[in-house]
Design goal:
four-stranded parallel sheet, 87 residues, 22% strand, alpha/beta, globular
Amino acid sequence: MQLGKDCAAVVTGGASGLGEATSRALAAKGVRVAILDLNAGRGEAVAKEIGGTFASCDVTSEASVDAALAAARKAHGQERILVNCAG
């Protein structure tokens, strides 16, 4: 698969640490990145910096995950990449 603007990704825990680094690396390749994280302030800031989107998400709650994935898909379409860095 070629990474680029036709590819959407979801990164849980994408607001800091390894998740943030992954979000930035994917965005640098042109991937549309949705950051799912509990830290809204940091998540929104990183998403803005990389041209992505942010959705608040508690990965221990199925309802929260469902809502965050729906928001990510609305913004970028169906994800082709999922990176789990939360926790």
